[in-house]
Amino acid sequence: MRYKLTLEYDGTDLLGWQRQLDGPSAQEYLETAIACFTGVEKIYTDEQGNTHNPFTIFGKEPQISVQCAGRTDAGVHALCQVVHFDMDKEIDEFRMLQGLNHHLRSQDIAMSVLKVEKVTEDFNARFSAKGRGYIYKILNRRSFPALQKNRVWWVPYPLDIEAMRKGAQYLLGQHDFSSFRAAACQAKSPIKTLDRLDIVPNGEEIDFIVEAKSFLHHQVRNMVGTLKMVGNHQIEPEDVKKILDAKDRRKSGPNAPACGLYLSKVEY
Question: Does 124 reside within a domain?
Answer without folding.
Answer: no
